[in-house]
Amino acid sequence: MTHTINRQTFDEVMAPNYSPLSMIPVTGDGSRVWDQLGKEYIDFSGGIAVNVLGHCHPALKQALNQQSEKLWHLSNVWTNEPAIRLAQSLCNKTFADRVYFANSGAEANEAAFKLARKHAYDHFGPEKHEIISCKNGFHGRTLFTVSVGGQPKYCEGFEPVPKGIRHITFNDTEALTTAISDKTCAVVLELIQGEGGIITANPEFIRAARQLCDQHNALLIFDEVQTGVGRTGKLYAYEHFNVTPDILTTAKALGGGFPIAAMLSTEAAAQSLTVGSHGSTYGGNPLGAAVANKVLELVDSKEVLEGVVKRHTSFINKLQKLNQKTPVFSEFRGKGLLIGCELKTEYHGKARAFIQMAEQHGLMLLVAGLNVVRLTPSLIIPEEDIAEGMQRFSKTMQVFAKNN
Ligand code: PLP
Q: Which residues lie across from 27 on neighbouring strands?
């Protein structure tokens, strides 16, 4: 088959804000993907922690197809059954009493940050508007979310940015204690900094954040856009910490590949989202909600969640073994199937070069910053795909070590 569309066409017609790798995937099945030429790849990237059940899972196809025969879209002038069912299910499975639906992680966070301000405004007045977040954090690409995110490069050129945001060092309890005050309306945290390099929060830091928020009447917001929906071996990562937030955002894996996101909150916080105060045309769309209902049902099972823990061990053991033979990495870290492989200092800055080489060897990987190779595969990736993918990983390491 000849293809009139190729990677070069991308450079001609697409806005230049992305620089995708060279092959164009056209089909996927489970944890395998095929490109335009029919070449096969093992997918350890999982659509950046989205394809929790792999590509084209039969039950998700069925949920999507069945809903597509009934009703696609309504707007929020009417509600719909799949969305209400999904909200019910999210409330039953988590700390939450109320759910607001959006379409992406950034939008869910935008809603969370707006709600935090509105809640403080309603109860304490406009002075209480400060948001505290962490350096190297990532919360999305809208102007508010890049501003709360702790990576100044994403704000550069887009100033002026919203005011009243303070950044502290991740895991620095003392800095949080100093920064928080009665002007603080919310503290926003990732439980594992994903884009920031797969750095897990210290339990003491998270516990202190809860306590300080209570002391200062501030809301605690967990951004679980990357860590949510089974990724760490629990449905949501906060369950590892025994600390519940007031607001939690979830996206990516929630739709298993169909765009849908949600902001979960307590009853008390949600009350500030009065009629007309916030909204979205597509949020809670029946197609997305129907798929997400099936994703939650399948992921929130002993089999899948325990499988994540087993697969974590399998990945880490294999990575450590390969690294003994070809020492390219200084550390493997993360929880469940959110795994970061930090390159040794002499290879710093070369994570993208590594994943480019992996692609040539039939393996799809991700970076997390300049120095970390990131793996976020399907939560149900078969052991034989892990083994085959690791062989390709091994070849990549050898070629990488030879050429760098
Ligand atoms: N929050 C976190 C922790 C993320 O990792 C991401 C995306 O990588 C986002 C928010 C933004 O999500 P989206 O790209 O769906 O807007």
A: 34
Handedness of CA 196, 199, 200, 202 (dihedral sign): negative
* Rounded distance between C-alpha atoms, residue 41 and residue 231, angstroms: 22
Residue 35: the pLDDT is: 98
**Residues 146-160 pLDDT 10s:** 999 989 999 999 999
Q: For the segment 362-386, what is each residue's pLDDT rounded down to a tens digit?
A: 999 999 999 999 999 999 999 999 9
* 109 pLDDT above the threshold of 80: yes
Residue found by looking up tokens 């992680």 in the block = 105
Is 138 among the residues known to form the active site?
Answer: yes
Provide the sign of the torsion angle of the four alpha carbons 182, 184, 188, 193, taken in this order: negative
Q: Which residue has the tokens 């793996």?
A: 375
Residue 273's pLDDT is 98
Whether the pTM exceeds 0.70: the reply is yes
What is the Å distance from ligand 1's center to 330 Cα?
26
* CA distance to 181, 221, 244, 334, per residue, from 191 (Å): 22, 10, 12, 11
Domain residue spans of the chain: 7-57+302-403, 70-299
| pLDDT at residue 1 greater than cutoff 90 | no
3-class secondary structure, 155: coil
Question: Which homologous superfamily is 7-57+302-403 in?
Answer: Aspartate Aminotransferase, domain 1 (3.90.1150.10)
Of 204, 179, 206, whose CA–CA distance to 190 is shortest?
Answer: 206
Is it the case that residue 237 has pLDDT exceeding 60? yes
Give distance in angstroms: CA of 159 to centre of ligand 1: 21
Q: Quick one: which H or E segment has residue 264?
A: strand 261-265
> Is the beta carbon of 110 within 6 A of some atom in ligand 1?
no
226 lines ligand 1 (CB under 6 A): yes
CATH number of 70-299: 3.40.640.10
The answer for residues whose C-beta is within 8 angstroms of residue 120's C-beta and 6 or more apart is: 128, 129, 185, 186, 217, 218, 219
Using a pLDDT cut of 70, give the percent of the chain over it: 99
Rounded Cα–Cα distance for residues 328 and 403 (Å): 12
Find out whether the beta carbon of 109 lies less than 6 Å from any atom of ligand 1.
yes
Nearest by Cα to 233 from 196, 197, 200: 200
Contact 232, 240 (CB under 8 A): yes
Token pair belonging to 339: 């795994």
